[in-house]
Structure formats: structure tokens, C-alpha cells
Amino acid sequence: MPATSNKPYRVGRSKTGLGLFATKPIRKGTRIIRYFGPILDSRIPEEDEIENKYLFELNGRWTIDGSVRKNLARYINHSCRPNAESDVRPRERKVFIRAIKNIEPGDEINYDYGTDYFKAYLKPIGCKCDSCEKKRKKLRAEARAEAAKVKARKAKKAGAKGSKTKAAKKKKLNGHAVAKVGGRARA
Ligand SMILES: [Zn+2]
Fold this sequence. Notes:
By secondary structure, the chain is of the alpha+beta class. It has three helices and ten strands. It has helices at about 45-50, 115-120, 130-185; strands at about 10-15, 15-20, 30-35, 40, 55, 60-65, 75-80, 85-90, 95-100, 110. Strands 1-2-10-7 form a four-stranded mixed β-sheet, with no helix packed on it. It has a three-stranded antiparallel β-sheet with strand order 3-9-8, with no helix packed on it. A three-stranded antiparallel β-sheet has the order 4-6-5. The longest helix is centred in the C-terminal third of the chain and has 57 residues, at about 130-185. The protein is elongated and about 75 Å long. Mean pLDDT is about 85; it is low at about 175-185. It binds zinc ion. Zinc ion binds near residues 131 and 132.
């Protein structure tokens, strides 16, 4: 990607495919990249019908179609706890991605795609951002710990029940045996 050589980012492999990664330190508040593409007008039916994952709605009327190859910002993945944000300027019909944290070289750049995108594309497959992965890991660990506790409790109960049953069986057997013996003895 020669066009990005003097830029503080590069396209690279991420967990979910490709992503945009910092190649230089990016200070909090810095405008990193512009999210651009043809502007679609929702009042024009043919434009309103365009559907892809890279549509960036500016407002009720205007949408940026970011699916064009030159728009490297389209590689930026979603995160629920991002290090950048989209700076939306509907009147200029422009969107910039701006750092909201200091970003170190090698860090993946991400921003929150918003609720609509999340619901439509991420929730059905499960969000793979670091924050959600961590949450899932924690929940899994908690579930495992809980399952282990329940298992231990059950084993304890079963053990207690087991000895009771055994004792009861013994008594019954003894009773039966006694009765039988008694019966036999009587017969
Ligand atoms: Zn997430």
C-alpha cells in the first residue's frame, strides 16, 4: 500500500479479517483518516436501494457509500470500547475518524459503529471486539466455576443420599432377610 506510507496507519490482518493498524503514535484528538465515498441521496430511489456493509449514514437524507476501494477507513473494525470515534459532519457531508485515546504503533484502530449496525450485523454473529471477547471469556469462566460448584454440591448430596440409601437398603435387606428367615424358620 504505497499510498499509506506517510500515513500513521496500514491495513493489516486482524482477528476478523482485515483491519487498520497504527504505524506511528497517534495522539488523542488527532484526525486519523477520512471515511469517504460517493454521497447517496435517500430521495433518489436508485441510491436509496444501494445496500452494503459500508454505508455511513450522515443524516436522514445523505449517506456515504464507503465501499470504494480507496476508502481505507472502511477497514477499521468496530469495537465496543474503541480508541477512535467517527466525527460526523452532515453539513459538510464528511466523516473523519478521530483518536479518542493515545494510540501506539501496532494497535488496531477501531470505533463504535453504533447501535443500528451492531444490531443488524454484529449481534447475530456475536461481536468479536476485544471488549466483548474479554466479557465472554469472563462469563465462560464464571459459568465454569458455577458448574463446578453445582457439580460439587450435587456430588456431596449424592454422597449423603448414597450412604442413606445404602443404610436404608441394608435395613430393608436385614428386615427382609429376617422376615424370610423367620418365614422359613416358621415353615
Ligand atoms: Zn464488542
